[in-house]
Amino acid sequence: xxxxxxxxxxxxxxxxxxxxxxxxxxxxxxxxxxxxxxxxxxxxxxxxxxxxxxxxxxxxxxxxxxxxxxxxxxxxxxxxxxxxxxxxxxxxxxxxxxxxxxxxxxxxxxxxxxxxxxxxxxxxxxxxxxxxxxxxxxxxxxxxxxxxxxxxxxxxxxxxxxxxxxxxxxxxxxxxxxxxxxxxxxxxxxxxxxxxxxxxxxxxxxxxxxxxxxxxxxxxxxxxxxxxxxxxxxxxxxxxxxxxxxxxxxxxxxxxxxxxxxxxxxxxxxxxxxxxxxxxxxxxxxxxxxxxxxxxxxxxxxxxxxxxxxxxxxxxxxxxxxxxxxxxxxxxxxxxxxxxxxxxxxxxxxxxxxxxxxxxxxxxxxxxxxxxxxxx
Length: 376
Description:
- Helix content is about 40%, strand content about 20%.
């Protein structure tokens, strides 16, 4: 259920992100960076939970000093959130593998210096220290010019801001970057990332629902966005943002990996795109009316045997009893309803024949091949 991704691959230290690399799961230390003991504990918790990358916020020279010590104590790639002070990039770059800047925060310092110059400077620093860059766009902190250009279209404002900053990095020859477009509303996250990917399918995407909140609501919001995007082949690294006690920070990694595993296995809480396209196998849940438990095995066998026709618009119904079986297979292209010792095979409303449990699969295969050959 996770299609191949089209993005280029970038390097964050030893971690590959994008292309055919596994989707990386990351999180962020929640403590004040200057509190060495607390932040050290956060890093250990995230390491133990299996984080691929750990982000730390830096907003002062004292934070940089703490970062320099912490970076020596972990083998995990580190990303730094520059927050509102992009000028700290030069100090932190020697200690980390990725720099994250927010386009909406670049105007806070050196107001007479152009955004283009600031981005070029960050790219220069990243190049010197072999760092990747994340262009981190948040709906709550759009740059003023984009608010003015798109006053009534928040999604378009975010998408255009991200695209423009990609071009700024492209123009100076820096390609080791990715983009995140986040909001607390998963629907906006879905729309914005889909639109951005249409513009720049080559750029790796960092997915997240910012300020998702406390579990279970925060998990649900994040799941909605990730299911809809990852199932489209969008998303090269993810971060789950939950309001949890510091000692539970590893839950963000666990939830993220759980959602990815569910999408990979086709377990959805929301409806993925194209969910109703292709082969549709309907099977009842079994109940006391079922007269032969082989019905359950038969349903599994039908699923495995027909996998070759996964992209065909065909419906196959497997029903376990004579009460619901005859009528509820009428709307299927092929229907099987099961009795004590035999299975009734139907094509639409017409009965093909009655067969033993060990015979019916071969006949079903022949009928399915005929339907596919006819162009269904």
